[in-house]
Structure formats: C-alpha cells, structure tokens
Amino acid sequence: MSVCRLILLQLNHLTADLLASCDADKSADVIVMGEPLAEATHVKHHKKKIAFLFSAARHFAADLRKKGWTVEYAALDGDAPAEGYRDLVGAAVQRHDPERIVTFEPVDFRLLDEMKGWGAKFERPVDILDDPRFVCAHDEFGAWAEGRKALRMEYFYREMRRKTGLLMDGDDPEGGQWNFDHDNRKPPKKGLDVPERFGVRPDKTTKAVMTMVDERFTDHFGDVAPFFYAVTAKDADAALDDFVDNALPLFGDYQDAMVPGEPFLFHAMISMYINAGLLDPLVACARAVAAYEAGAAPLNAVEGFVRQIIGWREYVRGIYWREGPDYVNRNALGADRPLPDFFWTGETDMACLRDVIDVTRENAYAHHIQRLMVTGNFALIAGLDPFAVHEWYLIVYADAFEWVEAPNVVGMALFADGGVLASKPYAASGAYINRMSHYCSGCAYKVSKKTEDDACPFNALYWDFMARNEKTLRRNPRIGRIYQNWDRLGPDKQKAYRRRAKAVLDAL
Ligand code: FAD
Ligand code: SF4
Fold it and tell me: What pLDDT sits at residue 2?
C-alpha cells in the first residue's frame, strides 16, 4: 500500500511536537523508529546511555501508538533489527512505497552526510527538516556570526535573552546586568546539605532494555545498573520540577563546586532529557524564571541556569554546524599523547580524576566543572590527543551527541580549535581544584607541593603546558600575563617543574 510520507524519528527526536511541526497526518503518514545498532556502536557508547535512549524511544513509540499514530518500531532484540537508520528506512520504503521521506536534523555530520544520499538511494524526495526545538536557527546564527572578528558566547547570549524575553525588564536585563557569574563561584562548605535527587524506578520496558544492553554490549564502558533516569516526558518533567524546587536556589552559588560522593550537587541533571527531546529547553527556562518571580530562587541561580540553556547550549550548536565536519579533527596546540588507561579504569592515585571517572562510569554523568576542570583540564595540560579525548567524552556521557559534545571538548576544554569557541584555554593547577573541591585532602599527592615526587601532578603539568605552548599563548591577552609569573620563577625552578612534568607524563 502506498502511503503519503514516511517520517523517521531518530533517537534524539522524542518530542511529539515535531510531528505537528511537519504537519504529520495520522491517517496518511507512517512513523519509523528503532534502535539502529550503529547508533550504539559507531563509538562504544556507555551502557547506561544506550539503555536510556532505547528505553525512552520504546516508551515514546508506545505513547504515539496510543495516540493513534501508525508507528513501525525496529527493536534491536526484535524480529527485524536494523544496522543503521538507512536500513530502517530502506525496509519501510519497501513495505510502504511512500511519496517522500521526512526526518529532522540528525546529531552529527556523519548522519547528515549519509542522509543526503538517501534521495538517490531510495529514488524519492527526502526532506531533512530544521530542528524547531532550538531558539536560534542556523541562518540566524550565521547572520549573528558573520563579519565578527571573534565569536563570544556572552554577546550571543544577550541576543537570545532579547529574542526570548527571558529575564528581561523591558529592553534591559533583569537586575540591571546580563550575567551574574561572579556570584557563582563559591567553594563547597564543609557539611554542605545536598538534596536527595529525583530518580525513577525502572519499569518492565526499561528492565528488558537493561538486560539486553548488559548482554549485547558487554565490552562497552559503564554500568547499566542502578538505573534511575526518566525515560518519559512526564518523568523528565517531574525531574525538572524536583530540580527547581530543591536544587535551583543553590545552583548558582555552588555551580563550580565539587564534592566527592555528591556527583549531582545542585545541578539540574536534565541535559540528557533535553537532548533526546523529552524536555523542552524553553519550558525548563520558564519554570526557573517562574521560581525567581515567585521569590523561590535568587537571580544569580536563575540567570546562570538560563544562560547555560539559551546561551551556551545554543551557542555550541551554532559553532558545531557552522565550523563543519573537520571540527573534531582540529588540533591547534599539536597535542598527541594517547589517552591513559585510567580514563577507562579510574585506577589512578589522583583523587579528583579517580572520583570523576568513577561517577562517570556509574552514572554516565559528571557535572560541568568536573568535565571541564578535572578530566578536561588534565587532558589539556597533559597534551592528550584531542580526537581521542573527543571520542572518550562522546562515549561516556548520556547527554553526549557530537553537535554538543565536540564544541565543549575540542573548543572549550582543549582549545584545539585555536580559540573559535573560547578566548583562552581553561588550564589550571591543583590550586583551583583544591579551592573548588574537597578532593585534595583525600589524595595521595600533596597539592601544596610543586616539584617533589609526591607533588600534585596538576601543578607541574600546568607550567609545562604553559611552557610547551608559549609561542601561541604568550600573545593571548587573557592568559599572556601569566608568563610574567613563569619568567619570575627563573631557570632553576622552571627546569624543576619541567622535570617533574616529564616524570608524570612518562608514568602515564
Ligand atoms: P546544569 O549544569 O544543571 O545546566 C543546565 C543545562 O544547561 C544543562 O542540562 C544543559 O542543557 C545546558 N548546558 C549547560 N552547559 C552547557 C554547555 N557548555 N553546552 C551545552 N549545554 C549546556 N553537554 C551536553 O549536553 N552533552 C555533552 O556531550 C556535553 N559534553 C561536555 C563536555 C565537556 C568537556 C564540557 C566542559 C561540557 C560538556 N557539556 C555537555 C556541557 C555541560 O557540562 C552539560 O550540559 C551539563 O553538565 C549537564 O548536566 P546538567 O543537566 O546537570 O546541567
Ligand atoms: Fe587532584 Fe592534585 Fe588535588 Fe590530588 S592533589 S586531588 S591530583 S588536584
């Protein structure tokens, strides 16, 4: 039987409104969904991430069927599993002979390039529609970026505030300033009272997916259990409510803090829901703003949260699609050291890295500062190969899709794009980690020591990084003045730092 359109909803398209946005017709269109093996294995994704996406997709497909849509779903453990989206669509084209194929923007250039060949392959029109779930369309980002000497998130963010009207007081920013980041750098107090976070007990569907993932992806990183993530829009919404009620008030104050045993602190834990489509980013912002207006959350917290979503999230997306497929291969600082094994095992005496890798293995989650200033900072100052680091981040986090992961890793954490995304490398010694965390007191290394055998490795690696990249970084206006401190150290101390860094790097 010939149908009007075949609508492919990919694993990041779990949003019912997408169907309305393409005028889908229940009586004429067929929706195709599934669990293509390649989406779990093109890099060996974390088991919890695969379980989250597949279970969420199964729930979403069941919900669409209940609402009267015709949905064909190819489960990986079903009768007709698919290698990739192409096979999923190919089989459905054979069955339904649709007039055209419709889908939405995929998560990376790998898929986009493949989909661009589908028209010829399937001998019918293929529409790859823009994703309407973002605030800033590609042409709008292009127009904003065009002709600028440097792209900076802060200016882009102001445009998004004006466009959405979020936290605006007429033409002015609420509270008289755009950005309250300087209030958001509090170190964690001893005995900080951290709220218990919302979690969902796995239902029958999730349990079946967890078993399948455990059996089929044995050599993938991470633990599938305990599983506590929401897999439906309703539960993702409840997770948002829980964040706004219990964590948002202190989100700003402790945004940069790190406490062993408290992987979530006051963070939202919603990126995987937003990226898969279970939660609308603007709904999340509106709920936070409503808490501010009701006097339940302070402006520094709410502005910080809104900035992450309509600022950073939109900005990194704009950069990814604008910079092109070679972005993930950039290596402006010429870093080439292989990823140490402990990124997979967590077996290191460095307490900060051990904790971040351990919680990542358990939860497929680490919060922003753990990703940026512990694993990211280490990868930067140790000169790890950016592509290997990019693959690691893409594998280990439940929210990782290349469009959002790559700019954060290649641009923000590693400065491997040469400054397209960030104005300076986020390099730091152990002093930063000590100030913002409770890691160092439980570490085998001494953060106060600089070049001795038991000195914190971050201390020598930091100066070694600055020395290795002096030619590029000395002229950087935001970091260049640090070389005055390097110069003041004098040749003997400089040599001692570099000797210690060499010993650390050789031991990797
Ligand atoms: P919160 O800290 O509570 O922030 C609220 C929301 O803001 C997040 O849910 C997210 O949607 C958005 N957000 C915050 N910061 C960013 C950012 N820099 N870029 C995009 N969105 C942001 N985020 C991903 O979604 N996927 C990734 O693969 C990813 N990889 C990262 C890799 C590195 C090296 C770094 C430094 C950051 C990465 N981020 C990534 C951004 C950020 O760390 C996560 O979005 C955040 O930690 C998710 O946790 P949360 O929901 O508790 O966020
Ligand atoms: Fe990390 Fe250094 Fe502190 Fe140890 S001493 S936890 S390695 S920053």
Answer: 54
Query: CA 320, CA 107: separation in Å to the nearest integer?
Result: 10
Mutation choice for ligand 1 from 300, 399, 405, CB with most ligand atoms inside 8 A: 399
Q: Using an 8 Å Cβ cutoff, are 63 and 232 in contact?
A: yes
**Whether 236 contacts 283, CB under 8 Å:** no
Joined tokens for residue 5: 């359109």
What pLDDT score does 171 carry? 95
Please determine, for residue 65, whether its predicted confidence score (pLDDT) is greater than 80: yes
Q: Could you read off the pLDDT of 285-301 as tens digits, one per residue? A: 999 999 999 999 999 99
Which of 283, 408, 409, 426, when mutated, tests ligand 1's pocket best, judged by the most ligand atoms within 8 Å of its CB?
408
Tokens representing residue 17 in the block: 């409104």
Ligand 1 atom with the shortest distance to the CA of 367: 47
Closest ligand 2 atom number to CA of residue 433: 8
Q: Mean pLDDT throughout 214-241?
A: 97
Atom of ligand 1 nearest to the CA of 274: 11
Measuring from atom 1 of ligand 2, which residue has the nearest CA?
352
Return d(Cα 174, Cα 264) in angstroms, integer: 28
Query: Residue 202: which H helix or E strand, with range?
Result: none
Name the 3-class secondary structure at 46. Answer: coil
Buried b (16+ CB within 10 A) or exposed e, 33-58: bbbbbebbeebbbbbbbbbbbbbbbb
Instruction: Write the residue with the smallest CA distance to atom 7 of ligand 2.
Output: 350
Predicted confidence (pLDDT) at residue 191 exceeds the cutoff of 90: no
Ligand minimally distant from the alpha carbon of residue 319? 1
Q: What average pLDDT does the structure give for the chain?
A: 96
> What pLDDT does 3 receive?
66
Dist CA 306 CA 300 (whole Å): 10
CA angle, 405 as apex, 434 and 253 as ends, to 5°? 40
Quote the ligand 1 centre to 271 CA distance (angstroms): 6
pLDDT score recorded for residue 137:
97
